[in-house]
Design goal:
globular; 40% helix; nine-stranded mixed β-sheet; alpha/beta; 15 helices; three-stranded antiparallel β-sheet; 381 residues
Length: 381
Amino acid sequence: MAEPLALYVHWPFCVSKCPYCDFNSHVRESVDQAVWRDALLADLRHEAALLPDRSVGSIFFGGGTPSLMPPTTVAAVIAAAAAEWGLTDDVEITLEANPNSVEVANFADLAVAGVNRVSIGVQSFDTKVLEFLGRAHSEDEARRAIATAQEHFARVSFDLIYARPGQTLAAWESELAGALAFGTEHLSLYQLTIEPGTRFATLAAKGDLTIPDGDAAADLFDVTQAMTVAAGLPRYEVSNHAHVGQESRHNLAYWRYADYAGVGPGAHGRRLGQATERHKKPENFITAVARNGHGLKVEADLPAHERATEAMLMGLRLTEGVDLARIEMRSGLGREAFVDANAVARLADQALMTLEGDQLTVTDEGILLLDSILSAVVRTG
């Protein structure tokens, strides 16, 4: 039996563009909901025809701001996935949501539509920080959104951004303690990074924005690990923490390099050794669907070595690491083609990696050096 398929559905619209965001998100005065529902369904049906005889184990509505989607559209997409592929009995259906009151008001209807997991973009519980991050919600709205989500959904996660300009260790400890007190079984905790092409990148280039240096960021990371472990939410990926068994199954599919279908503007997919990408601009996506019956822009065969490399780069982000035998099986290559054994041995001697049988893992001591470790270990050429 083939592994369950992961399905990603992209809703590209936002109320406003956050200054740190480099995702495919767009602000539009009006959205023709019927046109968008029909386009997403057509794009999904096209993908399903190319991936027959599979069941869907997870659906993830991302964006953009998918909590702006009409619940009827969400329900239609879920129903189409069930009709075209079939859903596993324990299917995980996640929707990203902002804490704004108008979107939280849809939580009950989204639950009825079939969503059983919500991921809320809180980012901070500090009003001044929310303004700095360009967020449209208040601290009170964030707290109410989490509480309301816990009433309607079996599984709730929310995001926070730390390592912000001027943030002290004590301030982050206090904020994180407050977040853990909600008792959700999953948290995504991201250090602020300056992404090219964002407003924050422009400010940083002018010297008007400075984030904590490496040592300060490392201290913040260390206290994050200590507090989440103590609360029973250990890190299972660089920035994601969960009770055992409550990890995001959809994101695990990415990191374990399973097949996933991407539907909607700019959505990426990995389909049977092919890389797929949809048109990013909403208007171009709609035009492509009307012309071709799908929104595909790129559909390219991935060479075996590139598949192996991607699996390594994604999988070593996980606390569990990578199964080298599985990558060999999926790529058809021996591990010597994509792993530098001498680098692994050297890093293992430094307690930065472990290799037990086929399982290669970056240790807690090594995770802050992940980029350098990947450069040393993964043979990309």
